[in-house]
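Something for you to look into today, if you have time. Could you write out one complete protein record for me, on any chain you like? Leave the record below and I will have a look.
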Amino acid sequence: MGEQYINNQKRLLDDATFKVVILNERRRRPPVLFYPNFKVEKHTYHKFDYGYLGNLEIDYRKDFTRTCWQDGDLIPGIPLDVTIDAGGHINVCLTGQDQGDVYRVLKGIEGTDKIGNVAQDWCDYYAKFKKQCTQIKFIYDQTDIPDNANTKETTADIFMRILHKNGWEVIADYRGAVPYHMERFNVINEILHEENDEYKPVRINKYNCEYLVISIEGAELKIGKTGYEKEKKYERNLTLDQRKTTHYSDAFDKLIYHVYFDKLNSFSGFAGAAAS
């Protein structure tokens, strides 16, 4: 792998992870994590618009319709980034916004029904934001255009069609093949490490992205035939709450990796690939 690669890994990883994935030391518990540099106290926050909430007549003992106007971290007029992870048992959607000195992951929306219903839920939640900005960027890749013999409309097509129907101007940002696990592992943990000033920090709204945080914290790393891989076996165990498995973390990978894509030349010290 080369001395530069090993030195980069030693700088990037915590001591326990470095010993397992680089020095090949055996360790059974606790599991090695795919996001060893993620820290809840560092990378998450809460921020409500209490002025807006205070003017509402809300019975907090009952459910009330939540909209983006309750969010104190949403900046009007700046376009949103949206990405999805669609599957047979759950569909998830993540929304982010580049706020200059920080990139914020603002909201997670999930559903066990059709991706079109998740798209409509997104439109309903952000309907009032559309008054200041109608433009969004939809970031998608090869996993969002699966072959389907029954229809020519892909998952990505359906999602964008619903947004168009609700009056959004959608910028389709297709990124092609999914980056290898090892590449995502290295890049995203470098960003979370926050030692390179070229990469603005990432912050996650813990209240609005509850299951994303759980998904990131629980994502395990395994060593495959060609390198690091994210452990995906829990997605096949349908007795588990699929919101808490790796679906949300995959959407997070897609969002963060591609938002920072234009700066990835600085990650050239990392090499290797794993199965996608």
Summary: The chain has one domain: 3-267. Residues 153 and 169 are 19 Å apart (CA to CA). Confidence is low (pLDDT under 50) at residues 268-276. The radius of gyration is 19 Å.
